[in-house]
Amino acid sequence: MLGQSSGGESSPRDDAIRLLARREHSRRELAERLAAKGHAPETIAECLDDLAEQGLQSDARFAESFLRSRILRGQGPLKIRVELERRGLDGEAVRHAFAESEQAGEGDWFTLAGEALARRFTGPGESPRERARRERFLASRGFDFDQVRHALEHAWDSAPDQ
């Protein structure tokens, strides 16, 4: 069968294409998944180089897709950065993805923090304990101190503060 190795097992390319058909993957993610399938490190590296050269795998495209999906989930920039780095993207690739997102009008972190807070809670909380709970919620979603403060002050405004 075409694309199959002599032992009836799929090639690293076949496995990588199947993974990429489902969603974008970072180079590191693909390398880890292919290694878990028992492919040799040198064939994995060669395969990933070929896929990148052909435009089938792109860390930049992965970062943009990942960032967009996390924004839609209501996650903040701190958490998203950590996740991108954990998936093997370097600082420059992460900065580039955030810059592209900003240019596209995505990632108004102050507004996103307020929207996430308003979806989860009906108001700012009456007691310090309730307000602290809301702060922890936003911090766990990856929003920074200024974004949390802004959200606590404006999440329930009738007209969003721009």
Automatic annotation (TrEMBL):
<dbReference type="Pfam" id="PF02631">
    <property type="entry name" value="RecX_HTH2"/>
</dbReference>
<comment type="similarity">
    <text>Belongs to the RecX family.</text>
</comment>
<feature type="domain" description="RecX third three-helical">
    <location>
        <begin position="112"/>
        <end position="152"/>
    </location>
</feature>
<dbReference type="InterPro" id="IPR003783">
    <property type="entry name" value="Regulatory_RecX"/>
</dbReference>
<dbReference type="InterPro" id="IPR036388">
    <property type="entry name" value="WH-like_DNA-bd_sf"/>
</dbReference>
<dbReference type="InterPro" id="IPR053924">
    <property type="entry name" value="RecX_HTH_2nd"/>
</dbReference>
<comment type="function">
    <text>Modulates RecA activity.</text>
</comment>
<dbReference type="GO" id="GO:0005737">
    <property type="term" value="C:cytoplasm"/>
</dbReference>
<dbReference type="InterPro" id="IPR053925">
    <property type="entry name" value="RecX_HTH_3rd"/>
</dbReference>
<dbReference type="InterPro" id="IPR053926">
    <property type="entry name" value="RecX_HTH_1st"/>
</dbReference>
<keyword id="KW-0963">Cytoplasm</keyword>
<protein>
    <recommendedName>
        <fullName>Regulatory protein RecX</fullName>
    </recommendedName>
</protein>
<dbReference type="GO" id="GO:0006282">
    <property type="term" value="P:regulation of DNA repair"/>
</dbReference>
<feature type="domain" description="RecX second three-helical">
    <location>
        <begin position="58"/>
        <end position="97"/>
    </location>
</feature>
<dbReference type="Pfam" id="PF21981">
    <property type="entry name" value="RecX_HTH3"/>
</dbReference>
<dbReference type="Pfam" id="PF21982">
    <property type="entry name" value="RecX_HTH1"/>
</dbReference>
<feature type="domain" description="RecX first three-helical">
    <location>
        <begin position="13"/>
        <end position="51"/>
    </location>
</feature>
